[in-house]
């Protein structure tokens, strides 16, 4: 299906260690924050303009050279997989009509990567979900991309993370700075400067501790874990040894912290680009507006409508 896997299985970083070539997208969650919209539609399929969130995430993996994507799915979520399948009946209709543009758009998801799935039968936490990837990824390093956030394609993050992991062989994270009042929504880390030989990759820090969703008064910093990870295969054993933590769930943060205390190096790239968080209604709306405003086809018209709307709203009208 894709040309990527063939090209990239032999990709080797400067150190001689191979770059991770598989990605895992945990997408089995219930999405209670979006009910009732997500009663029958997986939140990963909510549209951002005309593409579902999940397609942006798979495109981010593909852009980083990853051609093998494992979706961790659950009950009621099979339509996610259909999005990446061919749709011969629809394609034939578009071909008959000579609509080449829509035909390409319909085919594109199926051309991005090889898509595999595994089911997480009960939702016991992010660490628990990632544990289901073991038989697919084996003992090789792999990337994890959370199913409700993505970064701007022109400000990529994953390539540097893959390079960093190939050099350290350990756990690689990405951080973004949050308002100290918001630490209880994220994994939060304490850090120190990274070894000098790693700093050519980007703004790299060495992690000295991680805690999942601390209260602001307990947070070791305001550096939050972004939903991108590159993990060594030994994470699976650590997940098995991880007890339920924050929210009674088996947390990936706790499994990574366990590896760190046992001597696995943990580094992170501080990401200063644009992160879109579609996991909550407000972030989702912000994402739609930003991406729509930047689209070549409708951006100009949308921006001028938006400017008018804001102006009228500030003046006390509805703008519509
Ligand atoms: C998850 C992780 C958390 C991370 C966050 C990023 O939390 O557990 O460490 O900071 O994603 O979005 P969730 O959003 O699933 O509650």
Automatic annotation (TrEMBL):
Protein name as annotated: UTP--glucose-1-phosphate uridylyltransferase
Catalyzed chemical reaction(s): alpha-D-glucose 1-phosphate + UTP + H(+) = UDP-alpha-D-glucose + diphosphate
InterPro entries, per database record: GalU_uridylyltTrfase_bac/arc, NTP_transferase_dom, Nucleotide-diphossugar_trans
EC nos: 2.7.7.9
Pfam (any one): NTP_transferase
Entry-linked CDD domains: UGPase_prokaryotic
Keyword set, alphabetical order: Nucleotidyltransferase, Transferase
Family membership noted in the UniProt record: Belongs to the UDPGP type 2 family.
Residues covered by the Nucleotidyl transferase domain: 22-291
Gene Ontology biological process: UDP-alpha-D-glucose metabolic process
Single GO MF annotation: UTP:glucose-1-phosphate uridylyltransferase activity
């Amino acid at each position: 299906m894709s040309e990527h896997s063939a090209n990239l299985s032999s990709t080797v970083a400067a150190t001689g260690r191979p770059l991770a070539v598989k990605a895992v997208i945990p997408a089995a969650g219930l999405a209670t924050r979006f009910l009732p919209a997500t009663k029958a539609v997986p939140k990963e399929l909510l549209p951002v303009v005309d593409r579902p969130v999940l397609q942006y995430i798979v495109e981010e993996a593909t852009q980083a050279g990853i051609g093998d994507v494992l979706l961790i799915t659950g009950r009621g979520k099979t339509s996610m997989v259909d999005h990446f399948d061919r749709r011969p009946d629809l394609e034939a209709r578009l071909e008959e009509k000579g609509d080449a543009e829509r035909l390409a758009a319909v085919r594109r998801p199926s051309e991005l990567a090889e898509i595999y799935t595994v089911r997480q039968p009960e939702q016991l936490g992010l660490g628990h979900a990632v544990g289901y990837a073991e038989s697919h990824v084996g003992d090789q390093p792999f990337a994890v991309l959370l199913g409700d956030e993505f970064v701007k394609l022109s400000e990529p993050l994953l390539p540097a993370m893959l390079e960093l992991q190939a050099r350290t062989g350990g756990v690689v994270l990405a951080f973004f700075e949050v308002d100290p009042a918001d630490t209880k929504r994220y994994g939060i880390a304490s850090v120190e400067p990274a070894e000098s030989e790693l700093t050519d990759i980007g703004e790299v820090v060495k992690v000295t501790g991680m805690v999942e969703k601390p209260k602001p008064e307990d947070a070791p910093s305001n550096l939050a874990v972004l939903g991108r990870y590159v993990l060594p295969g030994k994470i699976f054993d650590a997940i098995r040894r991880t007890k339920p933590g924050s929210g009674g769930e088996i947390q990936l943060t706790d499994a990574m912290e366990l590896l760190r205390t046992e001597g696995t190096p943990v580094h992170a790239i501080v990401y200063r680009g644009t992160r879109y968080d579609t996991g909550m209604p407000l972030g989702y709306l912000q994402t739609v507006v930003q991406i729509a405003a930047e689209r070549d086809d409708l951006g100009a018209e949308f921006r001028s409508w938006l400017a008018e709307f804001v102006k009228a709203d500030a003046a006390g009208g509805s703008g519509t």
